[in-house]
Amino acid sequence: MKTTNVMIVGVGGQGSLLASKLLGNLLTEEGYDVKVSEVHGMSQRGGSVVTYVRYGDKVYSPIVTEGECDYIISFEKLEAARYAGCLRKGGKIIVNTQQIDPMPVITGAAVYPENVLETLKEQGFDIDDFDALSPAMEAGSAKAVNIVLMGHFAAHSGISEEKWLAALERTVPAKFLEMNRKAFSLGFHG
Predict the structure, then answer these.
(1) Which of 2, 73, 109, 160 has the most crowded CB, counting CB atoms within 10 A?
(2) Span 66-77, mean pLDDT?
(3) Domain count, the chain
């Protein structure tokens, strides 16, 4: 089996590290060789955060290079645009339509680009964009956007919802499990 490459991108505090841990946990349980690499960036200050998850029969490196990513799971629109060049031809970007202004926009030094997703679509990228914030709020917290997105990705993964939920139970602290189950289900079926 060829190696499958997934990038999870977002802004510090959105839970991309938990999402990559969930995916890695699931894939390991499925018997794949899995490598996970976390690139924190300025995560403590709301900066860009990237994690790589690579899996297959045998994976030698945790890093995904430009043009070889099969899936980008983006927690925010501008982050999808920032990393779109990493996508391979025929790859897919799953993106939350939420806009989170980076520090230069907050301070007035820059302007958030208009029509980010439309521009990516015009450039030929396969974009699966949806509002992950509303289902996260319905599940109980805006912080559940990460799990809504993973549920949405899971629906395309070829791995059963039950196996994903079992991985969620192994990954998420018990006190947050019910909220995350609901968030996952809303993403999976939404």
Answers:
(1) 73
(2) 96
(3) 1
